[in-house]
Amino acid sequence: MKRKFLVVCHDVRTDGAFSLNDLPGSGRADVCARCVVASLLISYGIRKDTEVILHLSGEPTPGISIRINGSSVKYLNPDERSTAALIRNALLKYREGKEVQSSPGVFVWRAGLEDILRNENVYYLKENGTPLNQLNFSGDAMFVLGDHKDLTPEEEQVVRKYARAAVSVSPISLYSEQCITIVHNYLDMLEVK
After folding, report:
1. pLDDT digit string (tens) for 82-99?
2. How far is residue 21's CA from residue 34's CA, in Å, rounded to a whole number?
3. Is the pTM above the cut of 0.90?
4. How does pLDDT run across 97-154, given as a tens digit for each residue?
5. Where are the beta strands (DSSP E) in the chain?
6. Fold held by 3-192
7. Cα–Cα distance between 56 and 35 in angstroms, integer?
8. Which residue of 4, 13, 64, 128 pairs with 142 in a disulfide if CB–CB is 3.0 to 4.6 A?
9. Element counts in the chain: helices (H) and strands (E)
């Protein structure tokens, strides 16, 4: 089962003009970096069956997306600063009208949420959704969540249009990277059985 995580990042600047020395003050680029690390890294390795997409809706050009492919990414480390540097590098290499590979396994392009979700098996991570352990997962799956902010009503409407279900990993609000870790843990346990 291939896993994908789509994190909607609301405030990270899409021109890459943010400081690696102040990631929280840079539109919460720290949250995006932690989500990448939680999605792809394991002890002494990278999850080859996983991709993470950061959909950036910050200024000046909302709608830029960065896809990091676990099977081909290079230079990914567990610290926030170097992961944010990969994100910033992708944004600096962005070119309107085409997908660009900014470094091995890291791609940047412009896409709307519908473009990303259209051909995916989508699950929306939401506190009031169906508990994760009550769903039957088969085939590839894409899990959608927000960063430090919930999805806007407009974003949520698009996600719900494509989602098979809203899925809860906890009845309380957790950090985005914690939600990703819980989903991975649950799916890992299913695959071991």
Report:
1. 999 999 999 999 998 899
2. 15
3. yes
4. 899 999 999 999 999 999 999 999 999 999 999 999 999 888 899 999 999 999 999 9
5. 3-9, 41-42, 45-46, 50-56, 64-69, 100-103, 106-110, 122-131, 141-146, 163-168
6. Alpha/beta knot (3.40.1280)
7. 13
8. 4
9. 5, 10
